[in-house]
Amino acid sequence: MKGKEWYQADEVAQEYDSKRFSKGGRLIDRREKEAVLAALGPVEDKNILEIACGTGRFTVMLAQEGANVVGLDISRAMMVQGREKARRAGVADRIEFLRGDAARLPFPDDHFDAVFAMRFFHLADTPAKFLAEMARVSKGQVFFDTFNDGSLRVAYNWLLPMGSRLYSEGDVRRLLGDAGLDLAGANHDFVIPFGFYRKVPNGIAQPFRSLDLAVGDSPVGDDLASVSYWDARAESADEASRAATRASDAE
């Protein structure tokens, strides 16, 4: 299966967290959550939209930090897992899960304090439309990650069952400009791609992560990183709406 079909399968949703965020994948989970909190925080009483919320890893975390969160996803099966996770965490009253299309968000302009998407743009078939819509409904902040085309990710990308879109920094900057977004900050990480960590026990993953961080802190670290986290700021609603039109015409 590829893309949307793969992502929406019941069996994929049921095993998503256990396959990706157990063993060495716990390192990935922790780092991604740190990246989201560092970019969005403090989040107490903020209204936040998560695009492609999946099983609610970040949605629930932000609700636990006091945010009011809307989680939007195309997969009913993923959101079933998210709702159960929110119920167990005691934060279901702070989260609304919606099934919807990220290219046509059902919200007015400037509706959320922040909008973010993690593990989404590598699957995005129309990234310009998605980013323009994120900018439109945000009062200011848009945060997302990408997988990078100059990294070891290329070596195993063809093995992934859902396919994967890779980006250069130039690609991201063009998308931001077309969406009416200004880049406020960027962080780059994981010279060793995610797939390796998911396959090995946590005890084995830890030394490799130390090596990964050492290379990442070197002068070539940013160039070799397989993942980048992009923190951007939206222009006015009128400018964002015009950017959305430009993105729609370009696709």
UniProtKB/TrEMBL annotation:
GO terms for molecular function: methyltransferase activity. It is an enzyme of class 2 (transferase). Residues 48-139 form the Methyltransferase domain. It comes from the Archaea. Transmembrane segments: none annotated. Its EC number is 2.1.1.-. This is Class I SAM-dependent methyltransferase. It comes from Haloferax chudinovii.
